[in-house]
Amino acid sequence: LGDIATHPDHRNQGFGRAVTAQICHFLQDKVDFIGLNVKCDNLPALRLYRSLGFDVNAKYGEFTLKKAPKRA
Predict the structure, then answer these.
(1) Which of 8, 18, 60, 11 is nearest to 36 (CA)?
(2) Rounded to whole angstroms, how far apart are CA atoms 34 and 24?
(3) What mean pLDDT is predicted for residues 39-50?
(4) pLDDT tens for residues 54-71?
(5) Phi-psi region of 14 (alpha: psi -120 to 50; beta: other; left: phi over 0)
(6) Tens-digit pLDDT profile for residues 19-29
(7) Which end of the chain has the smaller Cβ count within 10 Å, N or C?
(8) Euclidean distance between CA atoms 27 and 25, whole angstroms
């Protein structure tokens, strides 16, 4: 699952839980594994996903590389 988000004006009303649970319910008979990524400091999302039965199974880093400016 990816990019599940709730607009800040509508958080803490159960929308994220409802959407995530419904997607998982739809997928449960179609796939053997459902995974998602969430930032490790996003405590509200971690609580939500754990309450739906997800477990942390790996931590990863996200990196970027910027192109160096051309030298004159």
Answers:
(1) 60
(2) 7
(3) 91
(4) 999 988 888 999 999 888
(5) left
(6) 999 999 999 99
(7) C
(8) 6
The angle formed by the CA atoms of residues 49, 54 and 56, to the nearest 5 degrees, is 100
H helix or E strand, kind and range, residue 70 = none
- Please return the burial class of 20, using the count of CB atoms within 10 Å of its CB with bins 0-12, 13-18 and 19+: buried
> Distance between alpha carbon 67 and the CA centroid of its chain, in Å?
28
The string of DSSP codes covering 3-66 is -----GGGTTSSHHHHHHHHHHHHHTTT-S-------TT-HHHHHHHHHTT------------P
Task: Judge contact between 20 and 28, C-beta under 8 A.
Answer: no
What pLDDT shows up at residue 39? 87
